[in-house]
């Protein structure tokens, strides 16, 4: 089959790889009909190379049709249309039953002290072949696969794999009071959904992003948008009686610009030999923290900062004095996808499409054009906000 493979820093290629098959009785194999490029994939593309192996199949936002099941899989059958959550969870351990599927004790990657294994996401998370491919093996399929209907297009369901529940969790963690104000930093795909979810749940939503096309997309959904800069922070504070918003979702993470030192650390970690770079990534502060520091500065006293953006440095400095003085709550974590998919299903199937799932994808390309798509997405060219790859297109 054809699959997108990691080949080095800023280098992916589409290669012929062996077709996946059933390895455990709890597995299923799907034929992938749509698979998206996530902002988190850019971390593999740019930063997490020390934990990758040339030839790794990447991607963790797929959906498709079940073509084979293991002997213990009863929830789905051949022919079912399904979405595949990016975290691999068993559904029966203590963490899963507590709604913390991203910490699944059955699939935890104990070698690296990581939580649940993830599809297509480096040695840190199990090195499981990913979903930017024609076919995909799904472990723990009886719990993990989410059956969907047959009438609506893929785009209405595809984002249940990651970014929609990630955004929902981020807003829920923000705990915006009734009638309160939510600020969203970063209007990439997760930030777009965070803003729309905030509005859907009754909050006033303001958002900051440096890219005009992203601001325009959010604006047409009713979000008050601002360019990046201190003037925007002050304008938002003034618009909230001088206090700042009740909660801030940081949907940027370690891709934030503005720190030349951390930018150098990113590049150094990606270029050093693995034996040197791995300890640097695991024990050093390598993040660009501008977005997080902005969130802490912007949120009102006694407010909440919710992190949906991914950070990778184990020793990144934090302004603890300010956080303590402002009496902030800080919530974060890998999304527990299966904790949210059931309640999100009604929203994605609603004919009114209240979260605007039909208004997110800016580029649809054949799987064969994945290298060009990655470069375009990373460089934010051609108004690129969300890319979906089609494994069947030529």
Automatic annotation (TrEMBL):
Cofactor(s), by name: Zn(2+)
Keywords: Metal-binding, Oxidoreductase, Zinc
Recorded coiled-coil stretches: none
Domain Alcohol dehydrogenase-like C-terminal stretches: 189-255
Keyword ATP-binding attached: no
SUPFAM superfamilies noted in UniProt: GroES-like, NAD(P)-binding Rossmann-fold domains
Gene Ontology MF annotations: oxidoreductase activity; zinc ion binding
Domain named Alcohol dehydrogenase-like N-terminal: residues: 25-142
Protein family per UniProt: Belongs to the zinc-containing alcohol dehydrogenase family.
Name by which UniProt lists this protein: Molecular chaperone GroES
Protein's organism: Brachybacterium muris UCD-AY4
UniProt lineage: Bacteria, Bacillati, Actinomycetota, Actinomycetes, Micrococcales
């Amino acid at each position: 089959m054809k699959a997108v493979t990691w080949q080095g820093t800023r280098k992916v290629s589409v290669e012929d790889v062996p077709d996946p098959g059933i390895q455990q009785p709890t597995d299923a194999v799907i034929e992938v009909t749509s698979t998206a490029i996530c902002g988190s994939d850019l971390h593999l593309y740019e930063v997490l190379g020390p934990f990758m192996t040339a030839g790794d199949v990447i991607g963790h936002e797929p959906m498709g049709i079940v073509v084979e099941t293991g002997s213990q899989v009863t929830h789905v059958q051949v022919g079912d249309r399904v979405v595949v959550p990016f975290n691999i969870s068993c559904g029966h351990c203590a963490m899963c039953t507590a709604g913390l599927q991203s910490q699944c004790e059955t699939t935890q990657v104990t070698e690296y002290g990581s939580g649940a294994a993830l599809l297509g996401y480096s040695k840190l998370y199990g090195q499981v072949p990913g979903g930017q491919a024609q076919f995909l093996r799904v472990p723990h399929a009886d719990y993990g696969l989410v059956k969907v209907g047959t009438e609506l297009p893929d785009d209405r369901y595809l984002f249940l794999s990651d970014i929609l529940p990630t955004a929902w969790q981020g807003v829920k963690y923000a705990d915006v009071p009734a009638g309160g104000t939510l600020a969203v930093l970063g209007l990439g795909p997760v930030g777009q959904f965070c803003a729309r979810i905030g509005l859907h749940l009754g909050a006033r939503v303001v958002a900051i992003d440096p890219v005009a096309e992203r601001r325009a997309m959010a604006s047409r959904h009713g979000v008050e948008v601002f360019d990046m800069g201190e003037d925007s922070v002050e304008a938002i504070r003034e618009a909230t009686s001088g206090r700042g918003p009740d909660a801030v979702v940081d949907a940027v993470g370690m891709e934030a610009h503005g720190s030349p030192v951390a930018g150098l650390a990113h590049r150094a970690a990606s270029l050093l030999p693995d034996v040197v770079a791995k300890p640097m990534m695991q024990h050093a502060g390598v993040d660009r923290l501008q977005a997080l520091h902005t969130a802490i500065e912007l949120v009102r006293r006694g407010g909440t900062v919710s992190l949906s953006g991914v950070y990778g440095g184990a020793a990144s400095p934090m302004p603890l004095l300010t956080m303590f003085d402002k009496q902030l709550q800080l919530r974060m974590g890998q999304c527990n996808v299966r904790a949210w998919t059931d309640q999100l299903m009604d929203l994605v199937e609603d004919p009114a499409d209240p979260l605007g799932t039909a208004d997110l994808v800016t580029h649809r390309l054949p799987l064969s054009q994945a290298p060009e798509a990655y470069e375009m997405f990373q460089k934010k060219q051609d108004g690129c906000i969300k890319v979906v790859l089609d494994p069947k297109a030529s």
